[in-house]
Structure formats: C-alpha cells, structure tokens
Amino acid sequence: MISVIVPVYKSEKTLQRCVDSLLAQTYKDFEILLVVDGPPDNSGVLCEKLAKTDSRIRVINQENQGVSKARNRGIKEARGEYIRFVDSDDYVDADSNEILLQAMQTTDADFVIAGYHHLYFGRDIVKLPKTGCYEFVSMSDEDRREFLDLYKKGFLNMPWNKLYKKELIQEGFPTDLNLGEDLLFNQAYVLQCKKCVSVTAPVCNYIQDDRGTTLSTKKRMDKIPIALRLYDESTRFFQALSIPDEDVPATKAVMEFLDDIEGLAYDKKMDRQEKIETIHVYEEALKTLDATHKRISLEQLDYKIIYHFYKKNSTTVVHFLVMIRGFIVKLLKKRG
Questions:
Q1: Which of 96, 117, 179, 273 is a Cys-bridge partner for 92, taking CB atoms 3.0 to 4.6 Å apart?
Q2: Which residue in 262, 266, 183 sits closest to 227, CA to CA?
Q3: How many CB atoms are located within 10 Å of the residue 17 CB?
Q4: For residues 244 and 101, what is the distance between their CA atoms, to the nearest angstrom?
Q5: 82 beta partners
C-alpha cells in the first residue's frame, strides 16, 4: 500500500482538486493522509467532508506547526509500505502511483525520482530527469556524473515527485528550517538506500504563481545562512557517497543567491537604497563561497553577467542589471 501524505493549510480552494486527482489513481491500493496543520480557513472542515466520501481518506489534526512537522506526523501515522508526498495546492496524474511503484518494484530500488509539470504563470513546463539506475555501493563514474546531474538540475529539491520506502526513513524533515528542508530530507534518505532509479515520466502538476516571488527583507537575510548550511551539508553528502562534488554545491548556493537578487526587481516594498544594501549583504555571502571555490560554473547568461559584476564589487551596476532584467521579464509576460 502507498500512503499519500498531504499537509493541509489554507487549502480550501485547491484541496478538492488535489484529492480528486488522488482518488482517480489507476493503482488503487493506497491511503490518503490529510494532515490538517491548524489552518485559519475551512480547510479542516473540507477534510472531514472528504473523509466521509472514501474510506481510504484519513484526517489527522494538529496545531499549526508547519509543513515539516505535518509531513513527519504523516510518516508516523502511515500504514503503507511506501510513502508519497503531495502538496494540497498541486494535483497528480492518474497513473502516477502506478508509474512510481512499477519503477520501484521492477528494478528492486529503494527510491524513485520522476518528472513533473511545472505550471508557471499559465505555462506548462515539463521537467524530466534522464532514465537512470544508481547503485550507491558500486557506482560507476558515469553513474556518479548522472546522479550529480540530477542534483544540479534540482530533482532532489522536492519530495512530491518521488516514492519512498517507509522502513528506510530514518530522519524526518528538519523542523528548524523554512527553506531547503526537502533537500536535506532527500539527502538523508538517499544515504539509507542501496539503489535509486529515475524515470522519464511526469507524475505531478506543481503550481507556482506570483506567490513567493517577493521575499520579506527578514526572510532574505534568513536565507543566506540557510543556503550556506545547505552547501555544507550537501558537500558532506557527496563525500559520504564518494562522489567528487566538483564545486556543485557551491555553484548551487551561488545560483540560489542570484535568484534572490534577481527577485529584488519585483519587490515593491523596498526602495532603491534598501535594495542596494541587500545586494551588498549577498555580496559578502558570495565572497564566503568564492574564498574556497574557484570553479563556480554558471550556465544561464543572466547569472554569468550579474555574477561577473558581483566579483568586481560593482553593487550599483548589479542593481541596475537586476532592474533592467526585471523590466524585460515583465514586458515579455505582458506580450504573451
């Protein structure tokens, strides 16, 4: 049986669609755990109504403690041999349980990573990993490179396009973070696995709109030490797997910082001087990574240009480039 864990918070507008997509699965041996995390809306009431429509739905109530504790509670309460996570504002493909389970059973794997639809500002961007099989005890050099590529492309960053074995989950989601906890959970899980497979098939529809494009100043400042912690722990992760990291964790951290910096263009709450000061703080964080890593490899042109001027300490030029890029992005969205 697959236990599908769905944290519920402020979900009354999207939860029905999410649950309907789960109930429509072609593989029928599953349970749905709706972990109601003390929402301020009527999400909890809707959960109780849904549970009355199908015996496979269970409702678990708790005080508001955040998504990590909600998922950890779901893991504890799960009755299935396999664990799957779905967010309440997303929905899944009807054959997704079948795809994930078949991949795990036919390859005798402990972990399955699949693709997903990234629904972003009305666009459907399909993100698919390469099909691969990784035996961590005896990985070839080619497999090491391909597994590293999964990490570089962000396929370890989330839990909702994966299937886990409950018995191998030794560590829950970290509860002292509000960013990056999914990556650390996945890395801890991989270290318990003998074999992982990736499949070139989408199983989930991940919805992202304007929410999250603007971070509060405090959250931006919080994100810097978190990103540096993720860098440290990811470096240790690759060392544990005997995979040369080739400065990939450092590059990933730099990209996280550059994403946040580019996001300043959309922040209407900060004035010009505040944005320049924020850019300067990120500049200091980037120096921390530059001090020990000389092979930061960026592929996107905008990253390369902004990072070039960062290394020259040209804060005002970086601000100018970020604002110009933001203007162009907004213009392109209006046109189509």
A1: 96
A2: 183
A3: 15
A4: 31
A5: 2, 165
Q: What is the CATH number of the domain that holds 86?
A: 3.90.550.10
Q: What is the dihedral of CA 127, 128, 134, 136, to 10 degrees?
A: 10
Same domain, 130 and 49: yes
Residue indicated by tokens 């309907």: 20
Residue 215 has pLDDT above 60, yes or no: no
Give the C-alpha separation, 218 to 210, whole Å: 19
User: What DSSP string describes 291-320?
Assistant: TT-S-----SHHHHHHHHHHHTT-HHHHHH
What is the total count of domains within the chain?
2
Q: Which of 186, 193, 166 lies closest to 78 in space, CA to CA?
A: 166
Q: Which residues, listed in sequence order, are joined to residue 35 by a DSSP beta bridge?
A: 7, 60
Question: What would the pLDDT profile of 147-165 be if each residue is shown by its tens digit?
Answer: 988 998 889 999 999 999 9
Residues 283 and 162 in one domain: no
Give me 159's structure tokens: 């839990």
> Chain centroid to CA 189: how far?
15
Placement of tokens 């009305």 in the chain: 122
> What is the identity of the amino acid at 271?
D
Residue 272 has a CB neighbour count (10 Å cut-off) of 10
- What does the alpha-carbon distance between residue 320 and residue 291 come to, in Å, rounded to a whole number? 26
**Domain shared by 201 and 256, yes or no:** no
Q: Which tens digit of pLDDT belongs to each residue from 8-21? A: 999 999 999 999 99
- Asked if residue 272 and residue 170 are part of one domain, the reply reads no
* Structural domain span for residue 292: 217-335
3-state DSSP assignment of residue 10? coil
Q: Compute the average pLDDT of residues 233-256.
A: 84
Q: Are residues 48 and 131 in the same domain?
A: yes
User: Measured between alpha carbons, how far is 198 from 251 in angstroms, rounded to an integer?
Assistant: 23
